[in-house]
Each structure stands twice: as C-alpha cells, then as structure tokens.
Amino acid sequence: MLDLLTIGKKIVTQRKALGLTQTQLATRSRTSRATITALETGAQRELGFNKIIALLTVLGLDLRLTTANADRPTLEDLQQGREQ
Known about the structure:
Largest sheet: none
CATH class: Mainly Alpha
Radius of gyration: 14 Å
Strand content: under 5%
Helix content: 55-70%
CATH architecture: Orthogonal Bundle
Oligomer: single chain
Structural class: mainly alpha
Shape: globular
Number of strands: 0
Distance between the termini: 22 Å
Number of domains: 1
C-alpha cells in the first residue's frame, strides 16, 4: 500500500539526486517548504492529490495505479528479502 511516508521517502531521494533544495522544489511545485519538510519527515498526515502530482512532476516521477497484488510479494519485497 502506497502511503505518504513512502511517497515522502521517494521525494527526498529524488530531490537530492537532482541537487534540489527544499526551497527550490517548493518554488517549482508551488508548494510551501514547510509542506515538503513535513512530507519528507513523515509528519504530513494529509496532502491533496494536486500537490502530490505537482511535486512528482517537478521531480520527474509519476504515480501509477495497478491492480492489487492479492498479498503476493512485490519485486521490492523480493529484493529486500535477498538483501537480508
């Protein structure tokens, strides 16, 4: 299940990979720096769809919908199991 904590982790990773500060991302996505900080740290409990899409667009990411996997392990689950 995709949640804001997972999205926040992806956002901070991509933001840093692109060499952007929180302020730069905020300006480009028309979102407050405080919102980005809260999202990246897991403190943000709710965030509108349009704001999420704006952030992802600036970072070159997208949000995909797929059919639920009925408790089958995902590729990420299998990769994590291999690392452990």
